[in-house]
Amino acid sequence: MTHPILPPVTFAGAGPGGAQHLTLGVYHALQRAEVVIHDRLVGAEVLALIPADVRLIDVGKQGFGPSTSQALINETLVAQAQTGARVVRLKGGDCGIFGRLDEEIDALEAAGLTYAILPGLTAASVAAANVGQSLTRRGRNASLRIVTGHDMAGFADQDWRGMAQVGEVTAIYMGKKSARFVQGRLMMHGAGVQTPVTLVENVSRPNQRVVAATLATLAEAAQTLNGPAVILYGLAPRHALPALSQLKEAQA
Ligand code: SAH
Predict the structure, then answer these.
(1) Is the pLDDT reported for residue 47 higher than 90?
(2) Identified catalytic residue from 39, 91, 94, 176
(3) Residue 117 pLDDT
(4) Residue 245 predicted with pLDDT over 70
(5) Is the Cβ atom of 11 under 6 angstroms away from ligand 1?
(6) Does residue 39 have an active-site annotation?
(7) What are the Cα distances from residue 193, in Å, to 62, 73, 86, 168, 206?
(8) Strands (E), 64-133
(9) Backbone angles phi, psi at 237, to 5 degrees
(10) Is the CB of residue 92 below 6 angstroms from any atom belonging to ligand 1?
(11) Are 146 and 206 in contact (CB under 8 A)?
(12) Residue 156: pLDDT over 90
C-alpha cells in the first residue's frame, strides 16, 4: 500500500564534488529539503549549499573500511520518510552508478513509500573533461565501459578480452586496491603495456590530482592514491585547463 500523503523521497546525485558540477535540479531539491541523508563522497562545496536549518544525516561509508551497514541506511531512510519530512537522499556522483540505489528503492517500496530520482554527473564524466578528453571518439571507441574494481565478493571479474582491445576505454571505479589485479588480467588478455592509463584523484575538488601512467605502471601509480579516484583505462591526458580555476578567474 502506498501513502500518497507522504512526500516522495528524492534520490539525488551530488556530482563528484565541486558546486559547478551540481545540477540545478538537485540544488533546488536541496533548498526545499527538510532532511538530507548523505554519503562520505558528497563534496564539501555541495554540503555548504544546503540551508542551515536542514537536518543533515551522514551515513558515510568507506570501501573495505568502517561502514554504516546498508540495512541501517535503509532503515534510516524509511524512518525519515515516514515522518512526512521532505527527504533528499544525496549520493556522490550519479546516484544511479555504483550507488546501491536499488536496495534503497526496494526498502522504500516495501514500506509503501514513493520516490523520484535526480541523477548527477558521474566521476568519470568530470575526470575525462578535466584531462581534456572525451569518453568516446569516432574511430577510437564506439562504446564505453564503466566497471568496478571490486564487488561484494572481492575483486570483480570483467570482460577483460573486450577491455584489452586497442582503442577501448574503461572507467574503473573503486579500482585502487584492485589495480594490480586489473593490470594482470588485461596483460593476460593481450593488452599492450604502453596503453595509456590516467588516474584522476579527488575529481572536481581543490585537491584534484592527475597521474598519467600506462598499463605497465598502473599498479605503482595506484599506490600513490589517497583519495577517491577514477582510473581511465585507454585515455592519456590532454592539456585542458582546469575548469574550476578558469571559472574563478572569470569571476575575479
Ligand atoms: N556514484 C558515484 C560512484 C560511487 S562508487 C559516481 O557516479 O561517481 C565510489 C567510487 O567512485 C570511488 O571509489 C571512485 O572510484 C569514484 N569517485 C566518486 N567520486 C569521486 C571523485 N570526486 N573523484 C574521484 N573518484 C570518485
Answers:
(1) yes
(2) 39
(3) 98
(4) no
(5) no
(6) yes
(7) 31, 42, 51, 14, 31
(8) 87-91, 115-118
(9) -65, 145
(10) yes
(11) no
(12) no
Q: Is 204 in the pocket of ligand 1 (CB under 6 A)?
A: yes
User: Catalytic residue at 61?
Assistant: yes
Q: Percent of the chain, pLDDT > 70?
A: 90
C-alpha cell at 151: 564487488
Element housing 54 (H / E): none
- Residue type at 5? I
Domains and CATH numbers, the chain: 9-118 (3.40.1010.10), 123-251 (3.30.950.10)
| Ligand 1 pocket residue status of 129, Cβ below 6 Å | no
pLDDT at residue 151, as a whole number: 78
Report residue 184 as a C-alpha cell: 594482470
Residues contacting residue 109 through CB under 8 Å, at least 6 positions apart = none
First CA to last CA across the chain, in angstroms? 54
Question: Which cell goes with 56?
Answer: 543533515
Rounded mean pLDDT, 45-52: 98
Reported residue count of the chain is: 252
How far apart CA 82 and CA 51 sit, in angstroms, is 22
Q: What is the pLDDT of residue 61?
A: 57
Q: What is the pTM of this model?
A: 0.93
pLDDT band at 62, cuts 50/70/90? low
C-alpha cell at 28: 533546488
Query: In whole angstroms, what is the distance from residue 239 CA to residue 228 CA?
Result: 22
Whether the Cβ atoms of residue 193 and residue 136 lie closer than 8 Å to each other? no
Q: Is the pLDDT score of 4 beyond 70?
A: no
Ligand 1: residue whose CA is nearest its atom 16: 173
